[in-house]
Design goal:
With 970 residues, the protein is of the alpha+beta class. Helices cover 24% and strands 28% of the residues. The protein is built from 21 helices and 40 strands. InterPro entries: GBD_Hemicentin/VWA7 (IPR056475), HMCN1-like_VWA (IPR056861), Ig_VWA7 (IPR057615), VWA7 (IPR052577), VWA7_4 (IPR057613), VWA7_N (IPR056862), vWFA_dom_sf (IPR036465).
């Protein structure tokens, strides 16, 4: 791959940068540092998530009762092959939701290297021998992630998981664990009540001088032989004591202090990693540790919640925002009937929506929001809606839409049924920010029917501005949705776009907004992976002709022709191409009398996600995702992830095009691919267009047909940047501050700052005027008061927007802030061996059942929460649990779900007795406390082996007491 000149400049410029302190964050760092074969945090995280997901699908039947084959996957494992094999290649299954979830974990992981409050803190990265503090942080992140999952805040859980994985992975790159000769992961970091191996004291020298880029054997022999843990210091804070190891590499300012050199294994480049020759070993252990943690998360949260966390099997969402004023009877009925049709048609299939959201509104009430995964419950919500009151405009539409945006999955589509303009226009910026951040398409179905009964309604139509729906037009255009003006008579038929657009694996082939013209030709391409192609045209047409790739035509007047089935209603034309749809270029010639929006959709597993990024060459080289809108005049990278690539879809991609709202090409750019991340591409954009644009990806399918996918939503580059400096955790009963900078890259002017949140935590609401000089910066903040009764694990969504008074520039930031327990129980439970009986001599398989063995353990919890659950994770024997009083007894077998222990003192300490035939010589016990800390206890014959299972001195009095009361099992 050719390296752009700007990248060479960055590579050279990085030679004088401040220190770097982690596996490199993402694949682009390999290019910036010329460390082509290095494993990054992104590589490690994606590989581990794919492998643990594969393990689950090997044991979890799909809807046909088929599980994933157990043969080893091809390398590298891709989501396309994984889900294609699980669901079958004949099914159009979207991987966008899965990759969206993975990208959120990866993004949070990378934030640890890019955010100023995280990147240089040694506790976040296992640096500067802050090992115990880093271990405590790991355990706190673990509890935080579990709390978010329990509260069903999966976005917050993915963020917490990303932070957790970054620190865990850094341990193997920054410590001397590999140099000690360890070939297995350190199980004591998270799931053990035991102490870590001793950390080298502050006055103990750990390294000798090294004058080369490669520092072999610079860790003192006594340190490794005595199993003293150490990690490298970097930078100047904290200052490195003499004789300690440095992080090392050309980015580390401490590398020239005694002892010179360094020990990091972040990359394969000797310029950046003095222990580069051990990078592969560190990456292998970091990957194994990530897999182990994800397995623990699967076992602790449960398989169902783990799959929800990763959006596996999460199909389309059905999201309605409905005006319930008295004039909306027909619209409510249309929404109800359309939802019923979708549910009845798709129930029990892969096409069935997995999330249902409803937000009713009028004035002044909004809500209550109803969210469910049960279609019958959703129908009851709809049936309970009644059209009452009203008769005057406007209504609280944007408040309801904001609520729906917060609770809808990313990449979904929201349908707003109303006949009234918005009363809450001040929320426009917050709604726009949420729409762009979550890439949600918003479609407005507006009914303006002057034939309705009711003199008040007809009279007010005469005095209201015809531009009162301009905000709806703007929002739908920004998001890539539609605004359809229709009537009561046609609303039921027009709502068919809901049925078309909520199919899973929906892709956009073409999206354009046009003005009135005599005849306007528009072309789109259909490739061999696409089926169920539908064209929606919002607006009125005079004439229409459809041309197939073979030159056949069908006119507007032929409703049921040989190419398509056409339906025309007030405000909408719906065209469904008849199967099988011929691959190639299709042309639409439309004669219009007003502005129209033309949208072409289909079903295909091949689609793409994208984001903008800038090259970061401060403490951690890589590409940092742009939060909010991209900044004009700054070299920008477009990062694309193509989903659905598999052995059955032989596709290739060549370039991207930035398109205006009317479909004209504004900028084209070639794609560069990542060799280790299939489906990941980057394109360098020297300057973004000054007008709104959308993104189109172009390539070819396996048969040589042009393959195109369009984003639909519009992006506007801006000259103002809103950079958030802190992401505080919200603790119940406390005040938290969010600091941010406003950068003005244009002339001196005044900006209006608006802040809004969905929980009412903001201390001061309203608009603030800030004067910012040309190329200047102003720092500001907002405070949030978290009530003492706020649920731990829940979250608040804070929307910040800044707009120049001349309306020429605007930007936004959407922050997801979790409510956390600042003093959780971090102490895992313990399992201590008491006795092993019997042994298993070498026996033929047919005789193993004639011999048996048994083991007994003491289960206890030294933390504040107490024992919570026990499960026999592996082992074909029988586990008997008996409480301390001996009055309660429970039996467990392999494959049985976790046993919930009662809150009574009878279960304060538990005697566990495991008995098995010699056909199974190993077993594993999973033990949780009520906070969610996990301990894995392994037992085997003839010798008892427990993970971290030395009988602590503190446990002996309990053992003695249990023995005296005769409750030890034999």
């Amino acid at each position: 791959m050719a390296l752009p000149a700007a990248v060479w400049a960055l590579c050279v410029g990085s030679l004088v940068l401040p220190p770097c302190s982690a596996f490199f964050p993402n694949f682009w760092a390999r290019i910036l540092t010329l460390a082509w074969s290095s494993y990054t945090h992104q590589d490690i995280t994606e590989e581990a998530i794919l492998n643990v997901t594969r393990e689950i699908l090997m044991s979890r039947p799909n809807r046909w009762g088929r599980t994933l084959p157990e043969q080893e996957p091809q390398e590298p494992l891709t989501a396309g092959d994984l889900f294609g094999s699980y669901y079958g290649d004949q099914e159009a299954v979207s991987m966008k939701a899965f990759w969206q979830a993975v990208s959120e974990v990866v993004r949070a992981n990378a934030h640890m290297d890019f955010r100023s409050e995280m990147q240089s803190n040694p506790v976040y990265h296992f640096d500067s021998e802050r090992i115990q503090g880093a271990r405590d942080l790991l355990r706190w992140r673990w509890i935080q992630t579990l709390d978010s999952i329990r509260a069903r805040d999966y976005q917050g859980a993915r963020e917490g998981l990303g932070y957790l994985l970054h620190s865990l992975q850094d341990f193997y790159s920054h410590s001397n664990w590999v140099e000690m000769g360890h070939t297995e992961v350190n199980s004591d970091l998270l799931n053990s009540a035991d102490q870590l191996e001793p950390v080298a004291a502050e006055d103990v020298q750990t390294c000798r001088e090294c004058w080369n880029f490669s520092c072999k054997n610079n860790i003192l022999e006594d340190v490794n032989s005595k199993k003293l843990l150490t990690t490298g210091y970097f930078g100047t804070d904290p200052k490195k004591p003499p004789g300690k190891c440095s992080h090392g590499g050309i980015l580390d300012q401490s590398r020239s202090l005694s002892a010179r050199g360094g020990i990091n294994k972040d990359s394969t480049s000797p310029l950046f990693s003095p222990h580069h020759y051990l990078h592969g070993d560190a990456a292998r252990l970091a990957t194994a540790a990530t897999v182990a943690l994800l397995r623990d998360l699967r076992d602790t949260a449960g398989v169902t919640d783990f799959l929800r966390l990763m959006n596996v099997g999460r199909n389309s969402a059905l999201v309605f925002v409905i005006d319930t004023t008295g004039s909306m009877f027909e619209e409510i009925t249309a929404a109800r009937l359309r939802a019923l049709s979708i549910i009845q048609e798709r129930q029990g299939t892969l096409d069935e929506p997995t999330t249902y959201v409803l937000v009713p509104f009028h004035d002044p009430a909004v809500g209550p929001l109803q969210e469910t995964e049960d279609p019958d419950v959703f129908m009851r919500f709809l049936e309970d809606l009644t059209a009452l009151g009203g008769g005057d405009e406007p209504e609280m539409c944007l408040t309801a839409l904001q609520m729906a945006l917060i609770h809808s999955p990313p990449q979904s589509e929201i349908y707003v049924f109303t006949d009234a303009s918005p009363k809450d226009r001040h929320l426009q910026s917050a709604v726009e920010g949420l729409t762009v951040e979550k890439r949600i398409k918003v479609t407005f179905l507006l009914t303006e029917d002057t034939s309705r009964a009711g003199w008040r309604r007809r009279r007010r139509r005469e005095v209201l501005s015809p531009d009162r729906f301009s905000i709806y037009r703007s929002l739908s255009a920004l998001s890539g949705g539609l605004t359809v003006f229709t009537t009561d008579r046609d609303i039921q038929q027009v709502s068919s776009i809901v049925q078309d657009s909520t199919l899973p694996a929906k892709v956009t082939l073409f999206h354009v907004q046009t003005g009135p013209s005599s005849v306007s030709p528009h072309s789109f391409h259909v490739d061999s992976s696409v089926k169920n192609v539908t064209v929606h045209i919002a607006g009125s047409l005079k004439a229409f002709v459809l041309h197939s790739p073979s030159g056949q035509e069908q006119s507007f007047l032929e409703k049921n022709g040989h190419l398509a089935q056409m339906e025309t209603f007030e405000g909408l034309t719906r065209i469904r191409l008849l199967p099988p749809v011929s691959p190639g270029q299709w042309i639409i010639r439309a004669e219009t009398q007003e502005n129209i929006t033309l949208n072409v959709i289909g079903q295909s597993s091949v689609d793409f996600l994208y984001h903008f990024a800038v090259a970061v060459n401060s403490t951690h080289p890589g590409l940092s995702r742009v939060e909010g809108s991209p900044v004009a005049g700054v070299p920008t990278f477009l990062v694309l992830t193509v989903t659905g690539l598999s052995a059955s879809h032989k596709v290739s991609f060549s370039h991207v095009t930035l398109l205006s709202a009317r479909g004209e090409s504004l900028l084209g750019a070639q794609l560069s691919s990542s060799s280790s991340s299939p489906g990941e591409f980057v394109s360098q954009l020297p300057a973004l267009p000054t007008v709104p644009f959308s993104v189109r990806l172009t390539g070819t399918d396996g048969q040589g047909n042009v393959l195109e996918r369009a984003s639909g939503e519009m992006v506007q580059a801006t000259h103002v940047q809103l950079q958030v400096l802190s992401l505080p955790q919200l603790a119940p009963g406390t005040t938290s501050t969010v600091w941010f900078d406003i950068y003005n890259r244009g002339p001196a002017r005044t900006f209006v700052l608006t802040a809004a949140d969905d929980r009412g935590f903001l201390k001061h609401k309203g608009r603030e005027r800030l004067s910012v000089a040309q190329d200047g910066t102003v720092r500001s903040w907002v405070d949030l008061d978290t009530p003492g009764g706020a649920q731990v694990g829940s979250a608040a969504t804070l929307s910040l927007s800044v707009e120049s008074e001349d309306k020429r520039d605007a930007n936004f930031a959407v922050l997801h802030l979790s409510v956390v327990n600042t003093d959780p129980d971090l102490e895992p439970p313990s399992c201590s061996p008491l006795q092993v009986r019997g042994s298993c001599p070498a026996l033929p398989p047919e005789a193993c059942a004639n011999a048996s063995w048994s083991a007994s353990l003491l289960l206890s919890d030294r933390g504040r929460s107490g024992l919570g659950r026990v499960q026999l994770g592996r082992g074909r024997g029988r586990l008997v649990l008996r409480g301390a009083s001996g009055a309660q007894e429970e039996h467990l077998q392999e494959g049985q779900g976790p046993l919930l222990l009662g809150n009574s003192s009878a279960w304060a300490a538990v005697q566990a007795a495991y008995t098995s035939s010699c056909c199974s010589t190993e077993a594993e016990l999973l033990l949780w406390d009520r906070a969610g800390n996990l301990q894995r206890c392994s037992v085997s014959t003839p010798h008892l082996q427990v993970a971290g299972a030395f009988l602590h001195a503190a446990a002996w009095p309990m053992v003695f007491a249990l023995s005296c009361f005769g409750v030890l099992l034999h």
